[in-house]
Amino acid sequence: MSTAENEGPRLSSMGRGFDVITALARRSTSGEGATVNALAGDLGRERSQVSRTLSALTALGLVERRRDRGLALGWTWYATATELTDRRLHTHGIPVLDALSAELGEAAFLGVLQGDSTVTVLESLPDDSRMIGSWIGRSYPAYCSDAGRATLWDADDDEVRAVFSRTSFHPQGPRSPRSVEDLLERLADDRRRGYSVVDEEAEPGLYSVAAPVWDFRGEVIGAIQIVGTRSELLGRSDECGTACVRAASALSRRLGADASVSPLPRHR
After folding, report:
1. Which residues contact 87 (CB under 8 A, 6 or more apart)?
2. How far apart are CA 34 and CA 61, in angstroms?
3. Burial class (CB in 10 A: 0-12, 13-18, 19+), 190
4. Looking at the DSSP assignment, which residues form a beta bridge with residue 237?
5. pLDDT tens-place string over residues 59-87
């Protein structure tokens, strides 16, 4: 049997395990009791199927069975769930970006926060794109990046200040923020608007919009971006921003994010 043929069942089992961990994490966060029956009800699956998945997760140390027959996340769950989320971010992010780029006819990207910088991890370009080279792996200062602001969406002011405590706000474009307080004001505007707008902050003539991507923990783990020239996108801000929000929401759901998650920060 070929490698490709073997991949399907393995990924299917991984997906089932991820979904059970997600459901268990939600119940743990909300303080609700977690049992096999409760999780099967949450997932809309047969009890026997969920029980088999839980047995495998227990053997791996990802789930613990309590004396009261309740279930809890094991100490190794976080690292494994994070790894699965990262895989899903890439696997499901590609078709989401392709659809967004095709819809708008613009370059679409997925960026993540690393320290006080953002790094592009996925991209999708329209057929007529004139972009030279790839942005994948490219790092950029988060304070003047649309992905930077969107990935800080759920951070409170003190958290943002901590991220940039040692950052020098050198202007990258004519409209770059000059301080962390300036950045916080722009982030507040983004939250009120519903998506981030970066207008010649990263470099002259560059315009971009972005929306945050959430995971099953209710945390922002990345941002979907549309990037182009100011002359072409300035008049399409709302169209592109709304499309980014839809795409980011679709990807968030694939990562197990609660449909009711708020786009506003968790702390004020």
Report:
1. 14
2. 17
3. buried
4. none
5. 888 888 887 778 887 767 666 666 777 88
Helices and strands: H and E segment counts in the chain: 9, 8
Beta strand pairing status for 107-114 and 206-214?
unpaired
Facing residues of 55 across strands?
Answer: none
Which residue, chain included where needed, has tokens 């300036």?
Answer: 182
What confidence tens digit (pLDDT) does each residue in 84-109 have? 778 888 889 999 999 999 999 999 99
Of 230, 128, 135, give the one whose Cα is nearest residue 174: 230
Q: How far apart are CA 237 and CA 226, in angstroms?
A: 10
- DSSP per residue, 131-196: --S--TT-EEEGGG-HHHHHHTTT--HHHHHHHTTT-----SSTT---SHHHHHHHHHHHHHHTSE
Query: In the beta sheet, which residues pair with residue 63?
Result: 73
In the chain, what are the domains?
3-75 (1.10.10.10), 83-254 (3.30.450.40)
d(CA 146, CA 216): 23
Mean pLDDT per 10-residue section of the chain, whose length is 268 residues: 37 68 77 84 91 88 81 72 78 95 96 95 88 85 95 95 95 96 97 96 96 89 96 96 96 80 41
| pTM to 2 decimal places | 0.71
Coil, helix or strand at residue 125: coil
Per-residue confidence (pLDDT) for residue 264, from 0 to 100: 39
d(CA 43, CA 243) in angstroms, rounded, equals 29
